[in-house]
Structures are given as C-alpha cells and as structure tokens.
From TrEMBL:
Keywords: Coiled coil. The keyword Coiled coil applies. Residues 291-346, 403-488 form a coiled coil. This is Nuclease SbcCD subunit C. Residues 7-165 form the Rad50/SbcC-type AAA domain. The lineage of its organism: Bacteria, Bacillati, Bacillota, Clostridia, Eubacteriales.
Length: 639
C-alpha cells in the first residue's frame, strides 16, 4: 500500500499555492464550488500521469493571466507500507523567445522538468520510475478514481481485466469437471480449448450437412441413369441360336470367296505374269550383250581423253607462268640497263678543292688519289650491274625456251585429245538400240493370254458375288438381333451397378445423418458449456466484491451468450445509480481491484457531501466536500 505523505501545488491552474502534510492519513477537503478542490485532484493526477482527471494532457495548466516567467509545479511525498518512501515533483515552464526585429518576447511553447527525491530526471526515466514503483497510468487511475473502472474504461477492456484477475484458474477443463452434463466434451477436447473445438465442429458440420444435402440429387441421378428392364431369360435362350445361324452364313460366304475355279484362274494369272517378267529380263540381257565390246572400247577412250585433256591444261598453265616471269625479268633488265648508263655518265667532282671541315685546299696528290678512287668505284659498280644484267638475261632466255616447250607440249596433248574425241564419236554411232519390250510380239502375246485369263476370272467372280450378296442380306438381320440382345445384356449389368451405387448412397446418407446428429449434440454441449462457464465466471468475479455485481454475459434469444461488462448494485445498472450509490460502488471496485492487483493508492472522492455512509476501504481516502462557508480550500486530516 502506498499513502500520500504531503502534497504541494504552486501556480497550478486556479491554485496559487497549496501545501498540506497528510501524514499518510485520510483527509477531508472543504471548499465552495470553484474554490479549487478539483484542482488538487487534477494536480495529483498530473504529477503521476501527465494528465488531469478527465485524461487530458493538453490543457491550460498555468493560472489565467499569469505573468511572464511564472512556473506551475506539483510535488508530493509517498510512503509505502514496507517503510520505503520517495518524493516526486513535476514543473511546467512556459518558453518565451524574441524574434529578430521585435522588442518583446512571445510565448512559443513550454517545457517540463522532472524530479525524483529532488534529483533532476529525464522524462523517460521519471515515467519508468512511476511504472516500476507505482504502476501504469491505467493501474493508477483504476485504484485512485472511484468512477474510472466502471465508467471510463471501455467494456471489452473492463471485462478482460476482470476475467484476467478473477477467473485465471478457471480453464475449460475445470468448468467441464464441475458440471457432469459436460462430461462428453472432455473426451473430445484433447489439448484444445472448447472454442477451438467448436470452430472445428462447426466447420465439419457444414461439410457433413453439404454432403448430406447432395445425397438425394446423386440418388436421383443414379436412378435416371438406369436403362429400361429387359427379359434376361429370353435373351439368354435366343443368343446360342442366333450365334449358330450367323456362323452358318459366314461359313458359306467364306467358301464362295475361296472357290476352286476362281482360285485356279488366279494362280494361272499369277504364273503368266511371272513368266512375262522373266522374258522381259532375258530380252534386256540379250539386247545389252551385243554392245558390250563397243562399251569397253569407249570406256578406254574416255579414260585416255581425260588424261590428254588434263595434260594439255597442265602444259598450258606452265607456259603461261613462264611467260609471266619472263615479262617481269624483261622490265628488270631494262631498269638495270638504264642504271648502268646513269652510272657511266657520272663525273668526278672535287668541289672547290677545299676540305669542308677545316676549309684548307686539298694537296694535288690527294686530289689525284681521290679521282682514282672515284673511277675505280665507278668501274666496279658498272661491272656488278653488267654481271647482274647478264644473269637476268640468261634466266629470261631459259624461261622463254621453257614456255615455248610447254606451249608445244600443250598443243600436242590437245591434238591427241581431239583425235580421241573423234574415235569416241565414231564408236558411239556403232552402238545398236533394241526396240522397246512392250512393242515385241512376245510381249504382246503374253499380255493377250493374261487378259483372257482375267476375263474368265471376272465371270467366275461375278457369279460368286451374286451369291455372296444374297447371303450377306440374310446375315444382316441376324447381326442386328445379336447386337440388340448384347445391348440389353449390358443394360442389365448397368442396372445392377446403379442399384449397388444407390444402396451405397443411402448407406452414406444414413451415416452422414448420424454424424450430423453427433455434431449437433457436441455443439449444443458447447453452447451449454459457454452458458455454464459464463455463470461460473460471474459467480467467481462477483464473489470478490461486497456490493457490486458484474454482468459479464447476456443470454440471447437463440440460446447463445453475448459478452458484456456492466456493473450493477441491487439489480440496478451503474448508469442508473444515484451519486452516492455510484461512489460507494466505485469504492467497492477500487478496494477490491487494488487488493487483487496488489496496488493500493490514495483514493480521491469527489462530491463526498452527498454520501451519508461511505463504504470503508483499506486505502487512504481524500474526500472533497462542497462547503459554501469555505470560500478557500480548507483541509482536515482525519484521525
């Protein structure tokens, strides 16, 4: 339990100064309307949460018309039941800045300073300290404001908080164990919750119901697929007679198609055609034998002709190459001849007769030596050129002779090739071409014999075909009767299969009905479980409070349960209670929740003058009374 030791407000909203040592005892604060009683509770809440009683963080904290530099602050000291104590202080400071070019400062914002035991703190560290040593904002308001939990918190969050605090040990298995009628659910649960099982059962029930609804249509489809009933016994007796009749007719047809007369004629036609083919081959062999010698001679001539033509082409190419090289040498010889003439025309030039280096005149003997050296070099160079010219001339002459020889050889080979071509043409004329086999008398005779045999076969076949057509006409109705009986027998098998399928579908329909009933039973038990658990949870929660009862579940017309969370006193909803009843209900809630949460904080009670008999609670209370006689706030610390 944490109690308030002292509270100090400076320039906080309508309160210029307030300082009171509560000594961890209950207190009564008196004052007329507007005197600042609510400001004290707002300051206390702002110190712990940064918000006022209505949960507003952004509101006017400084007094109306406060001069520049005024700061608002709230400080309090707290003492825990274990003997620990700490002090908190929060200071609100406006920020003023002067813009460039302006003479006066303007308020541009605000800042807040935080202190723990008068040691400056950062906002995060300050808030963490409160959360660790006191509680979260919601926890603080829950156990210090009598109207907060029943009115300010949303119903879903309120209900969740109650269930987490008072029914944490009431799991599904415990509820089932408590109520014998729910025993079948225990067999189905396993490691799952009833909610999980319900979802699974509903999904399975939908599938079973869909399958069950489809069964009649599938049965009707199977009925409509059954063919008309047939006389099975009559068909069974007729089938052997029809099969024997069909075999007799087919055998007669086969005998006619394989008759001996037609077969003999076909054999004669086949033999005559084979003999004609053999005679044709012999005619071709004999015709080709008379030209064999000529063909052999022509083959030799063709080989020799090819050899001669190749030799002529080879010699002609060699001659052309030699001529090309000789022409190139002729140009080289002409250029060398011009170089000899140019060298021969060169004369010794002594210049000015002076050394170009030192500028002195050459001695006569040196000039003569230089002249001799010039002539010797000139003669040697001319001799080299002449020798090169002679060598080139000899090579050119050799190439010219080689080209002439190649031209002659090419001409000779060409003449030989032309002679061979003439001989080949003469032999070609001597070849004998025999007349076509189809024009010979032997061929025409054999064709006439075959045509006569084919005419005889046509006559015999025509007579057989007439008889075959008659028999096939007799066979057609027999085949039709056999097909009809076979189809009826197949239909009978299909009827049996469809009947078996219908029986299966009816069995499946019965099984699905059983499954549907089982799922309906389980879902009914699940609904009953929800109802019983709701009653158990409400009883568990309500058993912890003195006057307040919580309505956590609302029964629906269809038997379902709708979650809700409404405080009631003597059967009346919280919203319809009088002010005194609401305050006492809030005290019950604050006291019970605080003890369950392990967090007991000072509780502020507004409009305390309307409560004649306030509910006694364990926590420190600070009651606010409207008193017209007290124009300023007056505090009494109670014994």
């Amino acid at each position: 339990m944490i109690k308030l030791g002292a509270l100090t407000l400076e320039n906080f909203r309508g309160c210029k100064h307030y300082n009171m040592a509560f000594g961890c005892k209950a207190a009564a604060i008196y004052g007329a309307n507007g005197a600042g009683k609510s400001t004290l509770s707002d300051g206390y809440t702002w110190l712990l949460t940064g918000k006022d009683q209505q949960g507003r963080a952004d509101y006017n904290i400084l007094p109306v018309g406060a001069v520049e530099g005024v700061e608002a602050s709230v400080a309090a000291s707290f003492i825990a039941s274990g003997g620990g104590h700490f002090a908190l202080r929060r200071v609100y400071k406006p920020v003023f800045t002067r813009k460039r070019g302006e003479s006066e400062k303007h308020r541009t914002g605000n800042t807040t300073d935080y202190y723990i035991d008068e040691v400056p703190q950062k906002a995060g560290d300050y808030n963490r300290f409160i959360a660790e040593h006191i509680g979260s904002e919601e926890d603080i308001l829950t156990v210090s404001r009598v109207d907060y939990f029943a009115q300010a918190i949303k119903p879903d969050a309120r209900r969740e908080r109650l269930l987490s605090l008072f029914s944490g040990g009431m799991d599904d298995a415990a509820v089932i164990a408590k109520h014998a009628e729910l025993a079948p659910l225990a067999e189905q649960m396993g490691t799952y919750t009833i909610d999980d099982c319900t979802k699974r059962w509903k999904a399975n029930r939908r599938k079973v119901n869909d399958d069950l609804a489809a069964i009649p249509g599938r049965i009707d489809e199977a009925e409509r697929a059954k063919p008309a009933a047939a006389d099975v016994e009559t068909d069974a007796a007729a089938m052997p007679h029809l099969a024997a009749q069909r075999l007799k007719i087919k055998s007669a047809i086969d005998r006619l198609r394989s008759g001996e007369s037609a077969s003999g004629i076909r054999q004669q036609i086949s033999t005559a055609k084979a003999d004609m083919e053999q005679a044709h081959a012999e005619y071709i062999r004999k015709s080709a034998g008379g030209n064999q010698t000529l063909e052999n001679q022509m083959a030799v001539l063709r080989q020799n002709l090819s050899t001669a033509q190749a030799a002529a082409a080879k010699h002609s190419s060699a001659a052309t190459s030699s001529e090309t090289l000789a022409e190139g040498l002729e140009k080289d010889i002409s250029d060398l001849r011009q170089q000899v003439m140019d060298e021969h025309s060169k004369e010794f030039d002594a210049g000015s007769g002076k050394c170009p280096t030192c500028g002195q005149s050459y001695p006569p003997e040196m000039l003569e030596s230089m002249h001799g050296n010039f002539n010797a070099a000139k003669a040697e160079k001319q001799a080299q050129m002449i020798a090169s010219g002679k060598e080139l001339s000899a090579t050119r002459t050799g190439l010219a002779k080689q080209a002439e020889a190649d031209r002659a050889a090419a001409q000779q080979s060409q003449t030989e090739a032309e002679h061979l071509q003439q001989k080949l043409a003469a032999l070609q004329k001597m070849l004998v071409t025999p007349p076509a086999w189809e024009t010979t008398a032997d061929c025409q005779k054999r064709q006439s014999e075959i045509a006569a045999l084919e005419q005889d076969l046509q006559k015999v076949s025509s007579a057989a075909d007439t008889q075959i057509e008659k028999l096939e006409a007799e066979l057609a109705p027999v085949e039709q009767q056999i097909q009809t009986v076979t189809a009826r027998q197949s239909n009978a098998d299909l009827v049996k299969r469809q009947d078996a399928r219908i029986a299966e579908l009816k069995a499946e329909e019965k099984q699905l009905g059983v499954q549907l009933a089982e799922f309906d039973s389980l879902l009914h038990l699940a609904d009953r479980f929800v109802q019983l658990k709701a009653a158990d949870v409400e009883a568990e929660v309500n058993g912890s409070f003195r006057t307040v009862r919580w309505k956590l579940f609302e029964m629906q017309v269809n038997g379902g349960v709708k979650a809700c969370c409404e405080a009631q006193v003597d059967g009346k909803d919280y919203g319809s209670l009088s002010n005194a009843e609401r305050v006492n209900a809030g005290l019950d809630i604050v006291d019970t929740l605080g003890q369950k949460m392990g967090l007991m904080l000072p509780v502020w009670i507004d409009n305390a003058e309307s409560i004649s008999h306030p509910l006694k609670i364990a926590a420190q209370t600070i009651s606010l009374y409207v008193s017209d006689e007290d124009k300023t706030v007056r505090t009494e610390v109670l014994a």
